Amino acid sequence: MLRKAGEIMAEYIRNGKLEANRKNRIGAGAYGIVYESDVPGNVMKEVIVPESKQDYAAVNTLKDETDLQAIAAEMGMAPRVAGLEQFPGGVGNRMEMADVRENYEPHGAVMQGWPEGMDAVRVNQQLGQLALKGVRLEDRHNGNVLYNKTTGRPMQLDFGIAGRVEGSEKAATLAMVTSEGFEAAGIPEMGNMLRDIVMDYLEGGQVEEKDTGTKILEELEQQLRKKKAAKEDKSNLLPSFRSLGGDISKVEYKSAGGETYKLFYGGGPLSKGA
Ligand SMILES: Nc1ncnc2c1ncn2[C@@H]1O[C@H](COP(=O)(O)OP(=O)(O)OP(=O)(O)O)[C@@H](O)[C@H]1O
Ligand SMILES: [Mg+2]
Question: How confident is the model at residue 258, as a pLDDT?
């Protein structure tokens, strides 16, 4: 009896503390608020809209969100999950996780913006690693990624728009984020090439449900290497072209269809000219 009373008292005190912290929120989105937990060093993410009433079907329940974040947390890419509390009806459901503000900070001028430059490269690298673990993570605007204050390493928050991927979906997800990473690194051609190869693959059914991430990666790497080598191999070029030697910067070329193309030799773009 005494023990029971103690428990009730402790719960009462805890809720009072959480209530006070809730007023002092760290962040807020469309469906939830984030505030300090009663446990020092942790934060709570709490749902403020009943999960059945979310107006966007792609948004996860907090339970799904917690499960997906736990996978990323294992990989050191998301805050460690400390717990999940669920209540009837879903309002007030809350996830407890590590408060990462001491070592991580937001980047970008506006929260609605997207990661840029090296940040985008690193974020897409992590999204690729997550895809290999079977997790597709979306909605990476500036409010959902923090960066290590010294190393710049990203920390992913908000697994509200995310899901599991397997087989061909896994390959497609990996290809998309990798090509976005290439784009961010300033080599969009590489990204396009990769996307093309994967799409070819998927249409040809070469990626099977049973394929592991490693196999998909190996095959992609091999194909990329082949394509790159073919691109660098000058024996494929028109004979007239080859005989012109190394230093051409621009050549005009009329196609059989009568269209004029300007070829920029030496890795530059191929554009249709007037
Ligand atoms: N573990 C954490 N440590 C420190 N700050 C956090 C943590 N999690 C979230 N935050 C802060 O709270 C803000 C909102 O978090 P989050 O994006 O997860 O929720 P949300 O946008 O309300 O979610 P939803 O988009 O599902 O409505 C973040 O931008 C960040 O500033
Ligand atoms: Mg968010």
Answer: 59
